[in-house]
Amino acid sequence: MKQITLQILRTGYGGEDDRSRWERFDVPVPTGRSTVLDALIWARRHTDPTLAFRNACRVGMCGTCGVRVDGRETLACRTYLQPSETSGSDAPEIRIEPLRILPIVQDLITDRAPLHAAIDRLPGVSRDDEPASTGTQATDPDAAARDCILCGLCVSACSVAGLNPGFLGPAALVRASVALDARGGPEAAGVLDAVGGSDGATGCHTLFECTAVCPRGVAPTVAIQRLKRRVVKRQLGRLLRTSSRTGG
Amino acid sequence: MAELSYRKYEAPSGEFWLWFLQRVTGLLLIALVLLHGWFNHFAQIDAFEAGLQDEPVVFSVVADRLTRVGFIALDLALLTLVLFHGLNGVRTVLLEWRPAARRRRAVTRSLIGIGVAAWVVTFIALVVLIL
Predict the structure, then answer these.
(1) With a CB-CB cutoff of 8 Å, which residues 167-196 of chain A face chain B?
(2) Considering only CB atoms, which chain B residues are within 8 Å of A120?
(3) How many CA atoms does the CB half-sphere of A222 hold within 13 Å?
């Protein structure tokens, strides 16, 4: 049977030496459609029952199995293995790590609290009142943005989020963009004031790292660019109103 | 649904204006640098080719230009925009480095100091050249 070697970064076991360490798992790959998640499940079932990772839907809908495979953020359930007939040290190897930036709970499980806290910082934007998914992807940025499943891959991939712990991050900014599409008036003004600084939309360097890894075809970079445009309009409008009041 | 609150967090508006002016000064610099390059390197080519001057760029022509208000304003605008755009860019880079980000105010004040000092020194040099 074809085989693959998983190098998994393991963290969170306490003791005197509480550093992360790489651990090797040799896993058989029965079909050409086997995923990284299948391999992780096999490793936990047959090799080490303490191996910690999170999964739920297995079809890329829930976003809970986000990890980094060979340095790139992906959903384990949507990443197919490419095994070979060789085994042992000659077997192809992949490196699996937890997502960056989010705190590690254990092994591949990360704490999503900072992701949710970033959304909670935005006035009038809630994790619970997202519009229903349209199933539309990529062609319409507004519709695609509503398909965000809060998997956190974009935040892990974002260089700015890695450098600036206060940065709201692509996921929260996509939520802000969706909220602005749905609402107006004082709520919209509050959102725009919140995303206008270097911790918000204008802190984004437009590197497209978030867009490259999004498993749902959402383009956070596009949503953030649209936010920037709205912030500029609001701030210039506010400046003009202030100067006309002062002048009058 | 979670209870909504409309004044939870507001980004400091100064940061927005620094970001916005960085883009505006970038655009203005493109135009002014092209103008500067044209006047300093190409505007005298016709006179040189017609045999009216020995070199493509002659000091006396440059010095004469600096007696005109329009050119002085152009150079001062270029100086101001270059200093703002360059130092604001340095600030953005520095503030993404955590030790510097913890000293945001000190970094900003230091760069303002460098900018003002550089502007004054260059302005004095320009005045000396004109006089």
Answers:
(1) 186-187, 190, 193-196
(2) 8
(3) 16
Q: What is the pLDDT of residue B6?
A: 41
Supply the ipTM of this predicted assembly. Answer: 0.73
B9 closest CB neighbour out of A122, A126, A127 = A122
Rounded CA-CA distance B46/B52 in Å is 9
Residue A54: band (very low, low, confident or very high) from pLDDT cuts 50, 70, 90:
very high
pLDDT tens across A74-114, in order? 999 999 987 666 656 666 899 999 999 999 999 999 999 99
Query: Which CATH number characterizes residue A92's domain?
Result: 3.10.20.30
Distances in Å between the Cα of B40 and the Cα atoms of A65, A127, B34, B49 are: 61, 58, 10, 16
φ/ψ of residue B101, rounded to 5:
-65, -30
Distances (CA, A) of B117 to A187, B47, B91, B113: 44, 38, 17, 6
Which one has a higher pLDDT value, B121 or B97?
A: B121
By CA distance, what is A193's nearest residue in B? B10
Per-window interface: A 106-125 vs B, CB < 8 A = 120-124
B3 found inside a domain:
no
Dihedral angle sign, alpha carbons of residues A227, A228, A233, A239: positive
Question: How near does any CA of chain B get to the CA of A201, in Å?
Answer: 10
Q: Which domain range does residue B106 map to? A: 23-130
Q: Is B105 on the interface with A (CB under 8 A)?
A: no
